[in-house]
Amino acid sequence: MAYVIGVLLAAALAGWAVHVRARKFPGSLALAVLPRHAEDRRPLAQARANVRSLEQMARSEESGARAEVARQEQKREEDLRAAARRVAALEKPGRGKRLDALGELTLHEHVLLKRTANGATRTLHLADRRVRIDSGDSAYYLYVLEADGTPERTKYPRRTGEGEKATGFTEDRVRDFADAVQSAVAKENTFRATLPEQLKQAQHDRELLEQDTEAVDRARERHAEVRARHKDNARLAEARTELDAARTEWRRHTGRMPPP
Fold first, then answer.
1. How far apart are CA 52 and CA 54, in angstroms?
2. Containing H/E element for 122?
3. Neighbouring-strand partners of residue 174
4. Buried b or exposed e, range 167-206, using 16+ CB within 10 angstroms
5. How high is the mean pLDDT of the chain?
6. Which of 75, 93, 123, 172 has CA 20 to 30 A from 210's CA?
């Protein structure tokens, strides 16, 4: 059964190929498909191939130029969005990236969040803070102090138990977190000190990007030049004239005008 289906399919494909060839070289089936008429078909086939090749070259070059315009436009839009995000991030820094957390405290680039007993969250801005640790008999105490010395105390019970039953915090972990907070404070102080200049520079960079259309303009000019050149393509016009002559000659011999 499979063999029969294969034979039928092959026959159908062969019939379709003959049909296509007969449409391209009308007049008689023999003239269209038999090898002995290959030389009769050659001028028309060659003229078609020349036109198709030149048309393909034109389409390819124009497509590449059009794609470059799209690429440059997209790049400019992405650059403008990135510049706008940079300005917005400096105008309103917000919390910043999450850096660490321990117990009730969560450390971000610009703030320290403290979860209170009633489930609310307090925001402690990092600028000008200081960090201190005290050790008690049953707990460690992390103090985050404002510039005037006002403290925000967080209690960390000492670690007890072993394995999965262990609870509380080790001194090393509390001190590591305190170091992370102090490091974030130092970076925040530097950030705040340089923020006005950073914002000014970011706004300036955005303005320059908004004014800079050189790459897009150059790509558009290139696309327009390619389109104009192929619109007046002398080689393609000549090839089409030769194809028309070959088609006319075919009709003179067969009485049938072949398609381009």
1. 6
2. strand 121-125
3. none
4. ebbeeeebeebbebbbebbeebeebeeeeeeeeeebeeeb
5. 88
6. 93
- Which DSSP helix (H) or strand (E) runs through 105? strand 105-108
Interval 76-85: pLDDT, tens: 999 999 999 9
Which of 61, 58, 67, 60 is CA-nearest to residue 232?
Answer: 58
What is the band of 16 on the pLDDT scale with cuts at 50, 70, 90? low
pLDDT in tens, 173-219: 999 999 999 999 999 999 999 999 999 999 999 999 999 999 999 99
- State pTM to two decimals: 0.68
- 118: number of Cβ within 10 Å: 5
Q: How far is it, in rounded angstroms, from Cα 53 to Cα 235?
A: 11
Q: Which residues contact residue 141 at a Cβ distance below 8 angstroms, ignoring those fewer than 6 apart?
A: 133, 134, 135, 153, 154, 155, 156
Q: pLDDT-derived band of residue 17, with 50, 70 and 90 as boundaries?
A: very low
* Residue 14 pLDDT: 43
How far is Cα 198 from Cα 200, in angstroms, rounded to an integer? Answer: 5
Rounded CA gap, 182 and 175, in Å? 10
Q: Which amino acid is at 67?
A: A
Report the distance separating Cα 109 and Cα 105, nearest Å: 13
| Alpha carbons 184 and 109: distance in angstroms, whole number | 6
| Rounded Cα–Cα distance for residues 236 and 57 (Å) | 10
